[in-house]
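Sequence design from tokenized structure. All designs in this work follow the same two-part layout: the structure record, then the generated sequence. An example of the structure record is given first.
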């Protein structure tokens, strides 16, 4: 074990070449270089947590981050959602509640996520570049003045606003 520990201390990324490293060895490697997480197969909750404590960017090296790890990270740093591969809806909502501006980092948010967001922050559409007509409709259904934040509303949206104002 001491030989492996010395190897990790001299080159934390060498964990890639150690068959079935212990959790303690994994944590030692991560403390020295958070990128070592990318070479650990199915890291435990404890190992994932240690990695994001060292550096929130570690999340991008975790193939399938655990839900609890995603949640902890976006509670502390909502912008980190940018680095999470396929964040869950729950993680998306949590990040958006802490900072509606992270909407621009979420690819293809679901209607459920957008409905929650627009219910709490009707003007959040302003953080989106070229929102689809579907997203424009969702925003306007929650807050008709959201039209102010839509740069190029579709014809359908303009007609809807006209109808709502009459």
């Amino acid at each position: 074990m001491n030989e492996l520990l010395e190897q990790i201390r001299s080159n934390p990324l060498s964990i890639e070449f150690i068959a079935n490293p212990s959790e303690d060895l994994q944590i030692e490697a991560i403390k020295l270089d958070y990128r070592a997480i990318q070479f650990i197969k199915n890291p435990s909750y404890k190992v994932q947590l240690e990695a994001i404590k060292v550096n929130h960017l570690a999340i991008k090296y975790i193939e399938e981050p655990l839900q609890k790890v995603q949640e902890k990270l976006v509670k502390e740093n909502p912008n980190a959602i940018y680095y999470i591969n396929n964040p869950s809806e729950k993680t998306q909502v949590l990040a958006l509640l802490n900072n509606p501006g992270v909407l621009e980092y979420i690819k293809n948010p679901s209607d459920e996520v957008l409905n929650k967001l627009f219910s709490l922050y009707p003007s959040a559409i302003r953080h989106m570049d070229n929102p689809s007509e579907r997203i424009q409709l969702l925003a306007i259904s929650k807050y008709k003045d959201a039209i102010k934040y839509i740069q190029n509303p579709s014809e359908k949206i303009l007609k809807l606003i006209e109808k709502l104002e009459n």
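The chain has a mean pLDDT of 91. We note this feature because it recurs in several other targets discussed in the main text.
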